[in-house]
Design a protein that fits this description.
By secondary structure, this protein is mainly alpha-helical. It folds into 2 domains: 163 residues; 56 residues. 73% of the residues lie in helices and 0% in strands. It is built from 7 helices and no strands. The chain is elongated and about 95 Å long.
Length: 243
């Protein structure tokens, strides 16, 4: 049970994280992003189960086409035998038909896997997009601004309403969300051996790891340069609900 990711456990982890964000930052848009990712996690569970199953209607259609093609080929061979010694042009035409039949057979046999690949790549694109949404939420959370005086800010500077402790928690939640995006992508990797899907999953994991590294650099800045105050009540900072 510890050799593969469990989709249900991943969903439960996101549910807990959603509660933690709402309790720490009530009304913050980061909580909405987490709830959206939670919905994607539920959909991921269903999609992974779907890709693990066979598609009988596709297989039945492919088998019907193959049987019809083999029957047509058999009748063509019988016709040539009845005609006697075939001409060179007839042999050339028959060879071309065999090549086309082989190519069509390969196309039909790979149809199911290509349909599944298309749906998985669409889902992975959704995960890639929400990764950037999460990154946007931490973009203006700059620890260096905590030590800047108010007169150094401009009229367009973003509001700095978070204390060092709350800012650390906010960045940590963003990092956890990015990590869970990578885990949702990994669920698809363990359900298929398609090289295109595996490469796309690897790209998402590299993306989320790179974004998470930027966040942890900010957290390290807070640890080194700013002294957090964990005793401060988060309820006194509701002005950050739109962050």
């Amino acid at each position: 049970m510890y050799r593969a990711l469990n989709p249900e456990k991943t969903t439960q982890t996101l549910q807990t994280l959603s509660k933690r964000i709402e309790e720490r930052f009530p009304g913050a848009s980061l909580g909405n992003v987490c709830r959206e990712l939670l919905q994607i996690a539920r959909e991921t569970h269903e999609r992974v189960n779907w890709t693990a199953r066979s598609l009988p209607w596709i297989r039945a259609g492919v088998c019907s086409v193959i049987i019809a093609a083999v029957a047509a080929l058999w009748f063509a061979v019988r016709y040539i035998k009845l005609q006697g010694q075939p001409e060179l042009e007839e042999l050339d035409a028959g060879f071309n038909v065999l090549v086309l039949f082989g190519a069509s057979l390969f196309f039909l046999l790979s149809l199911e896997s290509r349909i599944k690949r298309h749906h998985i790549l669409q889902a992975l694109h959704e995960l890639r997009s929400i990764s950037h949404v999460i990154d946007m939420h931490q973009l203006t959370k700059d620890p260096s601004q905590l030590i800047c005086s108010a007169e150094l800010r401009t009229a367009s500077s973003p509001a700095r309403s978070l204390t060092p402790f709350l800012l650390t928690r906010y960045l940590d939640y963003c990092s956890e969300l990015l990590s869970l995006v990578g885990k949702l992508a990994a669920l698809y990797a363990q359900s298929t051996s398609d090289p295109v899907v595996l490469q796309s999953v690897n790209d998402i994991e590299q993306l989320t790891n790179g974004l998470a590294r930027k966040i942890w650099q900010k957290i390290m800045m807070l640890d080194d340069d700013v002294s957090p105050n964990p005793t401060e009540s988060p309820r006194t900072h509701k002005s950050h609900a739109s962050d």
